[in-house]
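Bit of a strange request maybe. I'm writing a small parser for structure token strings and I need a real example to test against, not something I typed by hand. Could someone generate the tokens for this chain?
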Amino acid sequence: MATDTRNPTGDDAASIVGTISGTPGSRYTLVNDYPDTGAGRTTLTIGADAIGGGTILFTFTAFTVPSGSTSISIDVLYHDEDAVSGTNAAAARLQLSGSPYTAGEHDPGTFTARTDSWATNPATSAAWTAAEVNAIERFGIRCSDDNPGIKFSDIQLKVTYTPPIKSINGLLKASIKSVNGLVAASIKAINGLGY
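Reply from user aminoacidic:
Good idea to test on real output. This should exercise your parser:
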């Protein structure tokens, strides 16, 4: 298995809904350092406001999963907590071909590490392909209930996959070439001994 990760590289201004802390255009800098779990961690807060929900998605450097990879899964890893005690709802979100896909929501509570996973492509309900993973457009957070507000200290996008196996023919050719080289070297050594 192989893994690759991506941290946010920018805000997707078109995705922003609700009251979100930080400076527009650089909010990603509050969460682009996964894992950020120390006492002095920076946080991005979504809510609390009257509209009842908030969303922010982030840009990132596209994945380059090799064609032919299998057993692909996508995870969004992050840490969250209530700004003040209360009941609210948050989840990770992906954007594929302009459409949003939100994981199952949870009530954040105290500071906790989260992993929201997609074992299949949510747009097709079929196994991910390398091309589909490499075309993921954005990732971020959706809060359907952000009152009280919810703090996020970090976020990261992760892909896990099995790379394609090299051609069997290529492996056989390399093995035969290696064996031929060993045989030739052995014959030369034997001849050198005068046999």
